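tl;dr need the bound structure. longer version: we got a ligand (S-adenosyl-L-homocysteine) that a collaborator sent over and nobodys looked at where it sits. i said id run it. heres the input, straight from their email, havent touched it
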Amino acid sequence: MSFKATVLTLYPEMFPGTLGQALAGKALARGDWALDAVQIRDYATDRHRSVDDTPAGGGAGMVMRADIVAAALDASVEEDDPRPRLLMSPRGKPLTQARVRDLAAGPGAVIVCGRFEGVDQRVIEGRNLEEVSIGDYVLSGGELAAQVVLDAIIRLLPGVMGNAESGETESFEGNLLEHPHYTRPAEWEGRTIPEVLTSGNHAKIDEWRREQAEKLTKERRPDLLGE
Ligand code: SAH
């Protein structure tokens, strides 16, 4: 069974977007994953098809209505659907490679994209939405965030990434950032490739890469090493 993504959004035409190209796009065309983009506005109930309203308690902006978001969810996701239901949110738990791996091992994901100030708290609680953040900054909507989450998942799906090995030494697999890369030409603007990489000595190459990965991680992300 392939990975099934159901995305609820006010901008379904933004999908597949970047996920329609390159690795993810080819995997989509092959059926390694499936995508259903649901227009939340189709579940509006009034003449103006409104999906948002002013915040209770006052203040700037608009809030997406709980009843409309819930109606969109209920119509597009069966109650016993085993897929996790994510809500893109800067207040959510930051996405990690470990969480991405878990999601890629599962049947799919239902992803709600917020707009405006976000969604009414009651639908988060009432429909068990798990808030997920892609980083400590604020986007104008959840659509790009959903594509980031899906891109990270899709490349891990069986058969999607050509060279399976390239997954294993990658940044965040284990707790290290990846070592630097080089390719031809052998010299560029006076800069050469570290000699060890052209030595053909694979044990030495592995050792060098490991050292570089550790050095980089220490310098840039000591938090990954628990320091
Ligand atoms: N008022 C909110 C921000 C709303 S931004 C706050 O201050 O927390 C509008 C929508 O963009 C959000 O509902 C969410 O779906 C999406 N979004 C913005 N930043 C995000 C992030 N870092 N990670 C995931 N989704 C994000």
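gonna send this back to them w/ a short note. Residues 88-91, 113-115, 117-118, 133-135, 137-139, 141-142, 145 surround S-adenosyl-L-homocysteine (CB under 6 Å).
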